[in-house]
Structures are given as C-alpha cells and as structure tokens.
Amino acid sequence: MNIENKNIKKLIINESVKLDCGKIIKNFPLAYETYGTLNKKKTNAVLAFHALTGDQFITNLNPITKREGWWTFAVGPEKAIDTNKYFVICANVLGGCMGSFGPKEINLETNKKFGTTFPVITIRDIVKVQSFLLKHLNIDKLFAVVGGSMGGMQVLQFTSLYPDLAYCAIPIACSASHSAQNIALNELGRQAIMADPNWKDEKLTPDKGLAVARMAAHITYLSKQGLQEKFGRKLQDKGSLKFSFDADFQIESYLRYQGAAFVDRFDANSYLYITRAMDYFDLEKQFNGNLSLAFKNTKSKFCIISFSSDWLYPTSENKEIVIALNACGANVGFVEIESDKGHDSFLLNVPKFLKTLSEFLNSNYIDFNNEK
Amino acid sequence: MKNEFKAISQIIQNSKRVLDIGCGDGTLMEHLKSKQKNDVRGLERKKELVQICISKGLPVIEGDAEKELIQFPDKSFDYIVLSQTLQAFLHPEEVLKQLLRVGKQTIVTIPNFGYWKIRVHLLLKGTMPITKNLPYQWYNTKNLHMCTIQDFVNFCNDKKIKINRSLCLTNEKISEITKNNMNYKNIFSELGIFLIE
C-alpha cells in the first residue's frame, strides 16, 4: 500500500522530543486529519484518539484504504460527535503506519526502513507528540478529548499531562494500567508476527503472522454471546462438514477474512510497537501507585463509559478510573452500557452509547460556551 | 420540584459540594447546580436514570451506595443527600456510617411509618399499609427497614449522631420538629427530613 499520498496531511515536528525510552526524535512527521470547522471563539475543537489499529481517518471514506473510517457510527454530520458542530481532529499515533513517524518510515541515516530499530514508544510519548498539533492549529483549549480502548488510555494520559487543556474528557472502554491478561494477549500477537519467517527479511512482509495476530485479537474484541448469536455453529457455504481444515464454519471464514483484510492496511512492526506502548501503559505507576494523583490538577469534566460484555477492558477496570477521580474530587460521571457486542461496542452502532456520548457533549458544550 | 426537594435545597447553602445518593433523574442536582451554584455529584443504581443525568451534563456515577461510598475520602462533601432510600438498604446502619464519614453534614429523609394513615390502615384493615409514599405490597417492597420519625431520632441519640435540624412534611407543608411537637409530628407527618453530622 502506497501511503505517499497527497491525501495525507502531515505536520513536521521540528522540535526535539525526548521519548520515555531516553531517545530523542526530531524533524518527524505526524499525520492528521480534521473534520468540520473551527469556530471563531475556538470553543468547538475535539481531539479524538484512535485505538491500536485505527488511523487519522476517523469518518467518511478513508482515502488510502478506500474503506469507511473507523468511527463512522459516532463521528460525522449529525452523529454523536457532530462534525457540523464540532471541529474534530484526529492524528495517526507515533509508531503508526498511516503517515506518522513509525517503523515503516525510512531512516535517513541508513536509508533503510527503521523496522525494529525504531525506538520503543509509550502512550505518554504518543500523547506528547499530538500536543504539537494543538499549537499548530492555534487551539489553546480543547472542548473535548475522546477515545476508546487505547484511545481512552490517551485521554487519561492527556488529561493527566495537560490538566487544563480539555474542558471535558471521555475515556471509553479502557484502563489506567494494562492488565496481565491484556499484556498476554498482545504478546500472543507479537509472537505470531515474529514467528513468521518473513518478519526478519525487511523486503518481505510477515502477512501470515500479522493475520494470525489480528485473528486472535479480533476474538477478544467480541463477546462469547455475541459470537454465538452471530455465528453459532453455522457452516460456510456448505451443507455439511467437509472433514478437512478448510474454513467449514462461518466464524473461521470470518476470522480469516478479518486477518487477510488487515495485512493490506497495517504494518507488522507498527503492530509490535503500538501493542508494546499499550502494555507499558501504567498511569498508576507513573504516580507511584496512587492513580488519583494522576488527576490531582485536572479541571476536565469526565464521562467514563464501559460496556457490559467487554472482557478486555471490563467495567471493573473502568471503575478504577472513576474511583481515582472521585478520590481527588474531580468532576466525573460513569455509566456501563448494556451491549453484547464486547469491546468493539464503542465502534459499532450501539444506540444507548451513542446517545450518551452525544448528550454528554451537547450539555457540556453549552456550559463551555457560557463560561467562555 | 416536589416539596421534599424544596426543603432539602433550603437547608443546603450555596456553592457547596453536594453528593446526591440515589439521585434519580437528577432533578434535585439540576436545581442545586443551576440555582444555588452547588458543585454536585450523584450516585444512582439504575442505568436508565444515570443516562438521563449524563445527558443533562450532571456528573453521576452508576453504582450502589452500599459498595461505592468507600471510594470517597473523609469529609469530601459539604452535604450528602439521601432521599427516602435509607430504609431500602440491606445495612442502613453501615451506609449511614459511611455517609457521616464522607459528608461534613448529611441530609436524610425518611418516609414516616408512624404516619396516621399507616397506623389506621394496619389497625382497621389488619394488612400491611399501602400509601401514596409507600405504594408497595409486602412481598415486592424495596423497603426493608421502615422506621418512624421517633425511631430515627432515637437511633441518632443512641449512636451519638448529632441532629442539627429536623423538619417534617405535613399536608404538603414543611415545618420544624421540636421536642414539644414530636408526638404530634410523628403521627401527622408523612416524611421526616434530618440534617445530621
């Protein structure tokens, strides 16, 4: 996939940024996209953070992949995050593969792709780099920061790093520190990639490994009940079992499709780096084991949302964030949305979720503009 | 807004931090926030009601007071409001302890089981009383620990809980409960409203 496309907006960050690993990067690109118009008072900017495999093309047709944007259900004209009303900004994360500085970029010193010589990055690095975008767009204060899953982690890190930069914050289906189960699942994906013999050869792409990683991960985004209802034991285009290892079952075929489609749009090394950043995320540890200190100075109004069937970032982990915010007297609301669609609920058409998101933003938008 | 909420609002001073337990659809919170500039938080068990509150921009947490109060630091609110819910908890005494820990002052309202209509219902009909305030049958009521105004006052005295104000709702009117009118109020009031610490 050629992403040297004129459809990709890039901010070149000239300043040096010291990463958590100690390395310094500078003169690197951050790819981003914006939707809607910034109003005169600059009170309608929403910074949305994408999850592990997302990118800056949050809605409409992605000009590179030619698929719908990843959050089309939530973002767009008259959607929950209404682009007629808000100015929505979304950047491809550092380490990503949609134009931002990442392992598939060429290292000018060696004239080769960075690959695994790219520095290991963290969620904090990812967030710090995106803050340059605000300066570039001349935005002093965001109306909202929002994101699900790894996007939610960025919301938490953002509000902790910049307690006064967002009027409201919506971390969705996420956690303040990655659980052992989630590290294990990410490691499974990374090992699948590294086990692919193509991975070591920089001229080849470890498609099989990356596809397996995606298949495994995809299961974790769904729920047992959701899978059972959607697929059950239904067979794929056949009347009976074939007594072979072809994809007899619909669920197998579905997963194979998910895996195959993914390798067309994603870089295997980006997958390694970004999953690592998620694993390293531990906001509690950043504040010596006291999560509420992370939000001590925050002025943002929080709305935490979890989903009943999400076993990857379960309600209990979302609630840890609520508890920490309450402990420091922050302004926080919390609701668990009933859904059988698992972790993926935040990306799908879940009306109660979209309604909550929309109305939380609406009412806060009025307050924010009254205060300004 | 119902008279009970009017009475509660009058007790609460402006611009103070308030936690409303069992805040329902946020009617009282909205009033306190917009009319009295209170910094409000809510706790509510029912998802649908939490969603309504969030849509109004009210910071409400979905959860059960019997489990959730532990997370709040000591004296982190100027007032905690517990409107007609104490009797529905499994362990009202424990909840009350938490309320007194988290709030500098707590406003508790209780449906008065000593109200004359209830007494008459039990006396004449011989069945569990059903009234406007307590519309449930004995087998489906959420109210596990009913008490009278006198019971609550006795309880506070026994537990050395200080009652700063006691009000009651009689015929839709709010009035003070005093030592002298206690017996009367315990018969003729539907609701007791107490500010305790």
Key terms for this structure?
heterodimer, A: 372 residues, alpha/beta, Rna Polymerase Sigma Factor, Chain: A, B: alpha/beta, Rossmann fold, eight-stranded mixed beta sheet, 8 helices
Oligomer: heterodimer
Low-confidence stretches of chain B: none
CATH class of chain B: Alpha Beta
- State the helicity of chain A in percent bands: 25-40%
Derived from helix and strand composition plus strand pairing, the structural class of chain A reads alpha/beta
The H-and-E topology of chain B, N to C, reads as: HEHEHEHEHEHHEEHE
Q: How would the global form of chain B be characterised?
A: globular
- Average pLDDT taken over every residue of chain A: 96
Can you give the helix content of chain B as a percent range? 25-40%
The helix/strand series of chain A, from N terminus to C terminus, equals EEEEEEEEEEHEHEHHHHHHHEHEH
Task: Please describe the topology of this protein.
The complex is a heterodimer of chains A (372) and B (197).
Chain A: E1 9-13, E2 17-18, E3 24-25, E4 28-35, E5 45-49, E6 75-76, E7 81-82, E8 87-91, E9 106-107, E10 112-113, H1 123-136, E11 142-148, H2 150-161, E12 166-172, H3 180-194, H4 207-221, H5 224-230, H6 250-263, H7 268-280, H8 283-286, H9 291-294, E13 301-307, H10 315-327, E14 331-337, H11 351-371
Parallel strand pairs in A: 5-8, 5-11, 6-7, 11-12, 12-13, 13-14
Antiparallel strand pairs in A: 1-4, 2-3, 4-8, 9-10
Chain B: H1 3-11, E1 17-21, H2 27-36, E2 39-44, H3 47-55, E3 60-62, H4 65-68, E4 77-83, H5 92-102, E5 103-111, H6 116-125, H7 149-158, E6 163-170, E7 173-176, H8 182-188, E8 191-196
Protein architecture, described:
The complex is a heterodimer of chains A (372) and B (197). With 372 residues, chain A is α/β, with parallel strands linked by helices. Chain A has two domains: 9-178 and 284-371, 3-Layer(aba) Sandwich (Rossmann fold); 184-270, Rna Polymerase Sigma Factor, Chain: A. Helix content of chain A is 35%, strand content 17%. Chain A has eleven helices and 14 strands. Chain A has helices at residues 123-136, 150-161, 180-194, 207-221, 224-230, 250-263, 268-280, 283-286, 291-294, 315-327, 351-371, and strands at 9-13, 17-18, 24-25, 28-35, 45-49, 75-76, 81-82, 87-91, 106-107, 112-113, 142-148, 166-172, 301-307, 331-337. In chain A, helix 3 (180-194) runs antiparallel to helix 4, helix 3 packs antiparallel against helix 7 (268-280) and helix 4 (207-221) packs across helix 6. Chain A is globular, with a radius of gyration of 20 Å. The termini of chain A are far apart. In chain B, strands 3-2-1-4-5-8-6-7 form an eight-stranded mixed beta sheet, with helices on both faces. By secondary structure, chain B is of the alpha/beta class. Chain B contains eight helices and eight strands. Chain B is globular, with a radius of gyration of 16 Å. The longest helix of chain B is centred in the middle third of the chain and has 11 residues, at 92-102. Chain B has a single domain, classed as Rossmann fold (3-Layer(aba) Sandwich), CATH 3.40.50. Classes of the chains: A alpha/beta (372), B alpha/beta (197). The A-B interface holds A 301-303, 319, 322-323, 326-327, 329, 331-338, 352, 355-356, 359-360, 362-364, 366-367 and B 17, 39, 41, 47, 50-51, 53-63, 71-73, 76.
